[in-house]
UniProtKB/TrEMBL annotation:
The lineage of its organism: Bacteria, Pseudomonadati, Bacteroidota, Flavobacteriia, Flavobacteriales. PANTHER family: PADR-FAMILY TRANSCRIPTIONAL REGULATOR, TRANSCRIPTIONAL REGULATOR RV3488. It comes from the Bacteria. This is PadR family transcriptional regulator. It comes from Pseudotenacibaculum haliotis. Pfam families: PadR.
Length: 112
């Protein structure tokens, strides 16, 4: 769990990528998918997730759809057109960052 600080700066990009792949998701579903994909290595708390979702919504990259499920209302998040473009940009930036880090941390294994 020592990697939590490293993941924190990537949370918005992680959310965007999941929504790109899954069309729409609700908050708890996002946390569970991340936990599943990382085999428990990364566990996103509600205290981190919802501020990130609200920020992305305020930026216009996410839209919210409220649906009634049983006796409760559930907020589903989906990418806007701007969100699709932003996801592409952020994933590209993330790949550049990872390539740079690889050069610094282990130059012998660098992809370039």
């Amino acid at each position: 769990m020592g990697n939590q600080k490293l993941y924190k700066g990537s949370l918005q990009t992680i959310i965007l990528k999941l929504l790109e792949e899954n069309t729409r998701m609700y908050g708890y579903e996002i946390t569970q998918k991340v936990k599943e994909l990382t085999k428990g290595e990364l566990q996103i708390t509600e205290g981190a997730l919802y501020p990130a979702l609200h920020k992305l919504e305020a930026e216009g990259v996410l839209e919210v759809e409220v649906s009634k499920v049983g006796n409760r209302l559930r907020k589903y998040y989906r990418l806007t057109e701007e969100g699709l473009r932003e996801t592409t940009n952020r994933l590209s930036e993330m790949q550049e960052f990872l390539n740079t880090m690889q050069k610094l941390v282990n130059p012998k294994l660098s992809l370039e």
